[in-house]
UniProtKB/TrEMBL annotation:
Keywords, comma-separated and alphabetical: Endonuclease, Hydrolase, Nuclease
MF term (GO), any: endonuclease activity
Protein name as it appears in the record: Endonuclease-reverse transcriptase
Origin: domain of life: Eukaryota
Keyword flag Nuclease: yes
Length: 144
Protein backbone atom coordinates (compact mmCIF):
# COMPACT_ATOMS: atom_id res chain seq x y z
CA UNK A 1 0.00 0.00 0.00
CA UNK A 2 2.74 2.48 0.91
CA UNK A 3 4.61 1.63 -2.26
CA UNK A 4 1.76 2.06 -4.73
CA UNK A 5 -1.06 4.08 -3.17
CA UNK A 6 0.81 6.44 -0.88
CA UNK A 7 3.53 7.35 -3.35
CA UNK A 8 0.87 8.49 -5.82
CA UNK A 9 -1.23 10.24 -3.20
CA UNK A 10 1.64 12.05 -1.49
CA UNK A 11 3.09 13.50 -4.68
CA UNK A 12 3.64 17.23 -3.96
CA UNK A 13 1.56 16.99 -0.77
CA UNK A 14 3.93 19.38 1.01
CA UNK A 15 2.55 22.20 -1.14
CA UNK A 16 -1.12 21.62 -0.27
CA UNK A 17 -3.18 23.93 1.86
CA UNK A 18 -5.65 21.90 3.87
CA UNK A 19 -8.54 22.58 6.19
CA UNK A 20 -10.64 20.39 8.51
CA UNK A 21 -12.76 19.08 5.63
CA UNK A 22 -9.69 18.06 3.65
CA UNK A 23 -8.21 16.36 6.72
CA UNK A 24 -11.40 14.35 7.21
CA UNK A 25 -11.31 13.27 3.56
CA UNK A 26 -7.66 12.22 3.79
CA UNK A 27 -8.35 10.13 6.90
CA UNK A 28 -11.44 8.62 5.26
CA UNK A 29 -9.39 7.65 2.21
CA UNK A 30 -6.73 6.06 4.40
CA UNK A 31 -9.32 4.10 6.35
CA UNK A 32 -10.95 3.01 3.08
CA UNK A 33 -7.59 1.63 1.90
CA UNK A 34 -7.11 -0.27 5.18
CA UNK A 35 -10.60 -1.72 4.92
CA UNK A 36 -9.96 -2.81 1.34
CA UNK A 37 -6.71 -4.48 2.44
CA UNK A 38 -8.57 -6.38 5.14
CA UNK A 39 -11.52 -7.07 2.81
CA UNK A 40 -13.83 -5.56 5.41
CA UNK A 41 -17.12 -4.24 4.08
CA UNK A 42 -18.65 -1.11 5.53
CA UNK A 43 -21.81 -3.19 6.06
CA UNK A 44 -19.99 -5.23 8.71
CA UNK A 45 -19.97 -2.21 11.03
CA UNK A 46 -16.35 -2.61 12.11
CA UNK A 47 -15.04 0.50 13.87
CA UNK A 48 -12.04 2.42 12.61
CA UNK A 49 -10.24 1.58 15.85
CA UNK A 50 -10.60 -2.16 15.20
CA UNK A 51 -9.48 -1.75 11.59
CA UNK A 52 -6.38 0.14 12.74
CA UNK A 53 -5.63 -2.55 15.35
CA UNK A 54 -5.86 -5.26 12.70
CA UNK A 55 -3.41 -3.34 10.53
CA UNK A 56 -1.08 -2.79 13.50
CA UNK A 57 -1.48 0.97 13.90
CA UNK A 58 -2.68 3.13 16.77
CA UNK A 59 -3.94 5.99 14.61
CA UNK A 60 -4.06 6.96 10.93
CA UNK A 61 -0.65 8.13 9.80
CA UNK A 62 -1.21 9.60 6.33
CA UNK A 63 -2.14 13.07 7.59
CA UNK A 64 0.84 13.07 9.97
CA UNK A 65 3.10 12.20 7.04
CA UNK A 66 1.72 15.12 5.06
CA UNK A 67 2.17 17.50 7.99
CA UNK A 68 5.76 16.36 8.56
CA UNK A 69 6.56 16.79 4.86
CA UNK A 70 5.12 20.31 4.95
CA UNK A 71 7.18 21.18 8.00
CA UNK A 72 10.38 19.84 6.39
CA UNK A 73 9.65 21.74 3.19
CA UNK A 74 9.02 24.94 5.14
CA UNK A 75 12.41 24.58 6.86
CA UNK A 76 14.05 24.04 3.49
CA UNK A 77 12.40 27.15 2.06
CA UNK A 78 13.37 29.27 5.05
CA UNK A 79 17.03 28.28 4.87
CA UNK A 80 17.45 28.86 1.12
CA UNK A 81 16.91 32.00 -0.88
CA UNK A 82 14.73 30.90 -3.77
CA UNK A 83 11.82 32.08 -5.85
CA UNK A 84 9.49 29.84 -3.82
CA UNK A 85 10.51 31.71 -0.67
CA UNK A 86 9.85 35.06 -2.33
CA UNK A 87 6.44 33.90 -3.50
CA UNK A 88 5.60 32.53 -0.07
CA UNK A 89 6.54 35.75 1.71
CA UNK A 90 5.15 38.07 -0.97
CA UNK A 91 2.21 40.39 -0.57
CA UNK A 92 -0.39 41.27 -3.17
CA UNK A 93 -1.52 44.87 -3.45
CA UNK A 94 -5.18 45.73 -3.53
CA UNK A 95 -8.26 44.65 -1.69
CA UNK A 96 -9.23 41.09 -1.01
CA UNK A 97 -12.62 39.60 -1.78
CA UNK A 98 -15.50 39.58 0.67
CA UNK A 99 -16.04 36.77 3.11
CA UNK A 100 -13.96 34.62 5.36
CA UNK A 101 -10.25 34.53 4.75
CA UNK A 102 -9.02 31.38 3.10
CA UNK A 103 -6.76 28.99 4.93
CA UNK A 104 -3.15 29.70 3.98
CA UNK A 105 -0.16 27.41 3.69
CA UNK A 106 1.70 29.39 6.33
CA UNK A 107 -1.38 29.17 8.54
CA UNK A 108 -1.19 25.38 8.25
CA UNK A 109 2.49 25.47 9.26
CA UNK A 110 1.70 27.69 12.22
CA UNK A 111 -1.16 25.44 13.34
CA UNK A 112 0.88 22.26 12.94
CA UNK A 113 3.94 23.59 14.78
CA UNK A 114 1.86 25.32 17.49
CA UNK A 115 4.22 28.29 17.29
CA UNK A 116 3.89 31.93 16.25
CA UNK A 117 5.05 32.75 12.74
CA UNK A 118 8.10 34.70 13.94
CA UNK A 119 9.13 31.69 16.07
CA UNK A 120 8.61 29.35 13.10
CA UNK A 121 10.85 31.48 10.87
CA UNK A 122 13.56 31.76 13.53
CA UNK A 123 13.48 28.07 14.45
CA UNK A 124 13.51 26.91 10.82
CA UNK A 125 16.85 28.64 10.27
CA UNK A 126 18.45 26.31 12.83
CA UNK A 127 18.32 22.89 11.18
CA UNK A 128 18.78 20.85 14.37
CA UNK A 129 15.99 22.63 16.26
CA UNK A 130 13.71 22.43 13.23
CA UNK A 131 14.28 18.69 12.91
CA UNK A 132 13.24 18.16 16.52
CA UNK A 133 10.11 20.26 15.99
CA UNK A 134 9.32 18.32 12.82
CA UNK A 135 9.92 14.97 14.51
CA UNK A 136 7.37 15.75 17.23
CA UNK A 137 4.51 16.69 14.89
CA UNK A 138 1.43 14.81 16.01
CA UNK A 139 2.94 13.68 19.32
CA UNK A 140 1.09 16.33 21.27
CA UNK A 141 4.37 17.55 22.68
CA UNK A 142 4.82 21.31 22.78
CA UNK A 143 7.90 22.46 20.85
CA UNK A 144 10.74 23.95 22.85
Amino acid sequence: MKCFAWSQFLYASETWTHNKNTEKRIEAMEMWIYRRMQRTSWKEKVTNKKVLESVGLQRPELLLTIQRRKMKYNGHLRRHDSIQKRILEGKIDGRRDRGRRRQTWLGNIQETSQMKMCEVCETALDRRRWRTVTAHVGDGMAPS
